[in-house]
Amino acid sequence: MNWADLDSGHCSIARAADIVGDRWTLLILRDVSRGIRRFDELSAHLGIARNILSARLGALVANGVLERMPYAEEGRRPHQEYVMTPRGAELLPVLLALIAWGDRHLSEEPPVRAVHNGCGHEVRLVPTCTAGHALTGGGEVQIVPGPGARRVDRE
Amino acid sequence: MNWADLDSGHCSIARAADIVGDRWTLLILRDVSRGIRRFDELSAHLGIARNILSARLGALVANGVLERMPYAEEGRRPHQEYVMTPRGAELLPVLLALIAWGDRHLSEEPPVRAVHNGCGHEVRLVPTCTAGHALTGGGEVQIVPGPGARRVDRE
Questions:
Q1: C-alpha span between A129 and B117 (Å, rounded)
Q2: Is the Cβ of A145 closer than 8 Å to some Cβ of chain B?
Q3: For residues A17 and B22, what is the distance between their CA atoms, to the nearest angstrom?
Q4: B87-122: per-residue pLDDT in tens?
Q5: Looking at the complex, does the CB of residue A151 fall below 8 Å from at least one CB of chain B?
Q6: Which residues of chain A register pLDDT less than 70?
Q7: Which of A140, A148, B38, B153 can bridge A135 by disulfide, Cβ–Cβ 3.0-4.6 Å?
Q8: ipTM of the prediction greater than 0.90, yes or no
Q9: Which of A10, A152, A141 is nearest to B84 (CA)?
């Protein structure tokens, strides 16, 4: 089996990267998951051009990662907020993995911490196999083709 | 504490996203980690324009994620290969998190599987707190400012 013979796009990494493999998109997801949910707030916090923010939010809504919710508050004009869908909330491990790598290699002191709501202790992603072994390093993980793999069509 | 008052760029997610928050970059890391290591092989497998591949590889080398290794094989012209540095290899959880999300939401059957070298069972990222609790859902994780957080300079 040679990886080069497998279709590059027929892959969960490629499909996920089509949706979240973009710097602004990752920062939007970070902000929305922390409660920065209005267009104007996102635009101000991220320093992103409004047309780019609009395009990224539209794509995230179209892909079922965010949804627009009408929001009414006394004394203010009704507006919309962006909230994570359940599918979007399941991207948390992607953000946690980026935090862990950025903390380790790009930051002196952790700018953010992920903690367990229940007890306040730090949360880490531990690669664990379904036989129950907690793995200690990347060398123990092997990526292999799955049942959904497809060969490149070289015609 | 309001997240909107914290500097958006002073953040491990932002710093990590500056380096890997790009669709092509994620696919390059996927391929290199699977042993597709030569420029021509990457170009053919990904179907990426050569100038874009060259720019992405150059940035990954500059950021210490990949390195170029001279490679000599009998009967072939000496060439270079791209290999993961130890820092690059530590991006594995980012790829595993994308695989898990893509498998769950974007693929019918898993195109790739991550398995434990030792026993062949599937590997999952389990969010675990340092007090030893394995968390069952994203709702149990809270992201809070860390010691390295910095307020926005609004001057």
A1: 10
A2: yes
A3: 8
A4: 999 999 999 999 999 999 999 899 989 999 888 899
A5: no
A6: 1, 137-138, 154-155
A7: A140
A8: yes
A9: A141
In chain B, residues with a C-beta closer than 8 Å to the C-beta of A30 are 11, 13-14
CB contact under 8 A, B112 and A22: no
Please state the pTM of the whole predicted model: 0.93
Domain contains A148:
no
B136 lies in a domain?
Answer: yes
The nearest CA of chain B is from the CA of A63 a distance in Å of 10
Q: Chain B 67-86, CB below 8 Å of chain A: which residues?
A: none
Q: Which domain holds residue B31?
A: 3-140
Residue of A22, A129, A150 to mutate when probing chain B, most B C-beta within 10 A = A129
Average pLDDT score, chain A: 91
Low-confidence ranges of chain B (pLDDT < 50): none
Cβ-defined contact of A112 to B13 (cutoff 8 Å): yes
* CA distances for A24 relative to A155, B18, B22, B111, B154, angstroms: 37, 9, 10, 27, 21
Domain count, chain B: 1
Domain membership of residue A154 (yes or no) is no
The CATH code of the domain that includes A103 is 1.10.10.10
Whether A124 is covered by a domain: the verdict is yes
